[in-house]
Amino acid sequence: MTTIDLQHVSRWFGNVVAVNDITMTIGPGVTGLLGPNGAGKSTLLNMMGGFLAPSSGTVTLDGRTVWRNEAIYREIGVVPEREAMYDFLTGREFVLANAELHGLGRKEAARALATVDMEHAQDRRVATYSKGMRQRVKMASALVHDPSVLLLDEPFNGMDPRQRMQLMELLRKMGDEGRTVLFSSHILEEVEQLASHIEVIVAGRHAASGDFRRIRRLMTDRPHRYLVRSDDDRALAAALIADPSTSGIEVDLEEGALRIQAVDFARFTTLLPRVARDHGIRLHTVSPSDESLESVFSYLVAA
Which of 10, 114, 206, 213 has its Cα between 20 and 30 A from that of 254? Predict the structure, then answer.
């Protein structure tokens, strides 16, 4: 069970602060790293991978300092966002070169290429690859030594839907095996489907951590929205609107439901079933309408 631990990590470039006093621990399973462009995600991943020194603070892998510690590369695989590759090599040669750096050979390179479904193009030059194919070959290169930690910076860029599904399944499997997988992505739907845990970076600072639904429920300063269907929506709306836990109710005739905005989450969750019971109203559907990862992310970025 390998973990990466960051303690009060900052990184600045001249007068520009890219990462500001971040403390977090990335453990086994799949973790999504979210943040708008320029938030500091790539800088953070580069420090975790040992390619960039923190200006202050520490980054450790199971208690061992990452920076200038070559031994950690036996355990870490990195897939950078940058496209810089040796275009004159074939895919097989590119992955084999990385295998040889780890003291491995053709067998391991072939296994890694098969894992990412690139056997059919392994003898073509990298220069002829599409963006999605380049991503998969970089992935094979990162997997060739069977690492316990995988760091991926926007790994889904350029992949078609089939390739994305294959990579998502591979990452999910690695997380289930107990490996530590951290990936950044701007495609919120993919993060929501794949990551069991999220870390949110906004303007270089650590904005939130955990399951996105739990994070949303902790946002007590922001209204919670619900879609409610019952056998008497108008009577239910009339009873609920009188309570201070609700700030607005809309009757959605097209959906045949109520759209309720609650300002007191704890009070509303006990109020709704009590009101329904007292007025003899049967509830058919009660579902949050703003607990998607997209809504949580937009709330955090706007904070």
Answer: 213
pLDDT in tens, 54-84: 999 999 999 999 999 999 999 999 998 877 7
Tell me how far the alpha carbon of residue 284 is from its chain's centroid.
Answer: 33
Percent of the chain that is helix, strand, coil (3-state, to 5): 40, 30, 30
Q: In this structure, are residues 85 and 128 in contact, taking their beta carbons and an 8 Å threshold? A: no
Instruction: Report the b/e string of 101-136 with b at 16+ CB within 10 A.
Output: eeebeeebbbbbbebbebeebbeeebeebeebbbbb
Q: Which residue, 288, 7, 34, is CA-closest to 182? A: 34
- The beta-carbon contacts of 244-252 under 8 Å, at least 24 apart in sequence, are 245/271, 247/223, 252/227
Average pLDDT on 8-24 reads: 94
